[in-house]
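Re: [help] complex structure
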Amino acid sequence: MTAWVIARNTFGEAIRKKILNVFLILALGSVLISLTFTFLEFRQQVVILKSFGLGMVQFWGLFIAIIMGISLIPADIEQRTIYTILSKPVKRYEYVLGRFLGGAITLAVNVALMGAAFLVVFLLKVNTRALESLASLDFGAFWTSWVWSGEVPGLIGGIAMVYMKLLLLLAVAVCFSTFATVTVNFFLSSAVFIAGSISSVTEAMSKSPNTPIVLRWLYAAVHYLVPNFGNYDVQNPIIHPEVPAADLPLYMWKAVFYGLAYTIILLVVGVLVFERKEV
Amino acid sequence: MENAIEICDLTKSFHSVLTGEDVIAVDHLTLDIHRGEIFGFLGPNGAGKTTTIKMLLGLIFPTSGTASILGYPPGDIEVKRKISYLPESPYFYEHLSGYEVLDFYATLFGIPAAERKKKVDELLDLVGLSDNKHKRLRHYSKGMLQRIGLAQALINDPDLLFLDEPTSGLDPIAHLDIRDMILRLRDEGRTVFLSSHQLSDVEMVCDRVSILDRGKLMRVGSLKEMLAGKSVEIRAERVRDDVFEKIKAHSSDAFTVDGAIRVRVEQSFVNETVQMIMQTGGEITAVIPGKRTLEDIFIETVREGTVS
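Output below.
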C-alpha cells in the first residue's frame, strides 16, 4: 500500500519532467518521419517502417529508462525530500519498490504512447495501400496489404519485448542508484546495457581458446552476471514473419520470466544496500 | 519524569576519504528529553545537531551508543507513527500543490480519505495557506514552504516533533505565528525537540536547553536556572569611603554616580555587603539580581569550549 502511494507520486512527478517529455516528443516525431519513406518499393517501405518504428521505440525508450532510473532515488536524497518520507512510517524497501514501480508505470505509459503512434502509422500505411489496391481491383496487392494488417499482434509483442528490455534496464539503474552517484550510475548502467546486449559475444569470448585465461574468466563473469538484453531482440522474426522461426511466443514468454526474475534480484540487491544507506 | 528521548553515549564518526581519518560529528552524547517539554538543542554550525537528529530519526546510523525514542529504537516503524520531523529548509515534491503534498503525507500514515481531507484542510487553515492550497509548491515562497513543512509535521498528531530551524527565512509575522504554534504544541502535551540558531526564540519558548559544540555536549539544564545570574547589583547612598573600598575588593564592577554607589557582587557576598552598608549609616536603594541572556551563555559556552 505504502509502496503504491509512492509509486503513484513518482509517476505524477515523472510525467511532468520536461526532459522525459522531450524524449517522448522526439520519439513520436521519429515514428512519424517513417511516413516519408515513399521513395522505396512498397514491400521495402513496410519492412523499413516496422524496423524503424520498433527501433525508435527502443532508442528513445532507452533514454527515458536510463535518465529516469539513475535519478529516481538520488534526486530525493539530493533535494532532501527523502527526510520527510523516511521519517514517516515508510519502510525502506517500500520506498525503493515504490520509486521503481512509479518508474515502471511511467515507462509503460511512454512505451505505450510510442508504440501506439508506431502502430497507427503502420496501419495507416498498409490500409491506405489496401484501399488503393481494392479501388484498382488489384486483389493480389489487396491480399498482401490485408495480411500485413494481421501482423499487428506480432508488432505488439515486439513492443512488449522492448518494454521488458527497458524495464530490466530501469531495474539495473535503480539498483545502482542505491550506492552510486548519478553520473557514475549513468556510465555503469550504460556499460551493463552494452555488455548485456552483446551477451553472445562475451559468451563466445569466454569459451574461445585464443582468449587469455584471465580474460576468459572476466568474459564468463560478465556473461553470467550481467542480464542478457539480447534476449529481447526479436525484431527479425517480427519484421520478417514469412521466414520460418522457432516458437516465438514461447521464446517471448521465457524472456519475460527471465526479465522479471532478474528485475526481482536487482531490486532485492538494491533494497539490501539501501537498508544500510545513510541519507 | 518519563523521558520522550533517551540518548546514551551516542557517537557518530564519518570516515574522510581525502584525509583517511575519522571525523567525529557527535561525541559520546548522553541526554534525556522529558515528555511534554520544549527542548532547545543549540550549537554553532557543524556542532552535530542535525547529525544527532538524523540518528534519532533512523536516517543515519550511530557508530556507537544507543538512543530510545518514546521507548522505541530510532527508525522503528511504530515510533515513526508518533513522531514528526521538519527539516531545515525543507524541500517537497514541487509538482504537487500544497493540498496534494499534505494529502500525500497523510496517505503515508494510512489516514482514510474522508478524514484526510478534513485534516488537510484544517492544517492548511492553521498555517494560513488555505488561499494557496491549489498552487504548485514550485510557486511557493520560502515562508510558505516552511509553513507547509510545519503542516506536514502535524499531519499525524505527533507526540514528539523534531523541528530543525523552523523559523528560518520567515518574515516577523510568520516567525511569531510559528513561535506561538510551538508553545501551543507544548500546551497540548506534545514534546518538541527544537534545534535553532534563533536564540531569542529558544529563550522564549524552551523549558530546557543543551549546547553542543564540535559534537560534545557542553551544557544542559533548565533555561530558567541557566539564565538566573550569579551576581547581584547593589545600589546605595551615603556609603563611607572605607566601606566602599572594602566592598570594591569583592566586586567585579564598582563605581559611583552622583555620590551614590553601584557595585556588582557575587550572590554569596550580598548579605554581608548590605549589612556592612547599613551598619555604617548607608542606605540601600536597590538590590537587582543580575540576569543573563541565552546569547551570553551560548557565546560563553562555545568560547570556553574553544579555549579548552
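Chain B has a mean pLDDT of 91.
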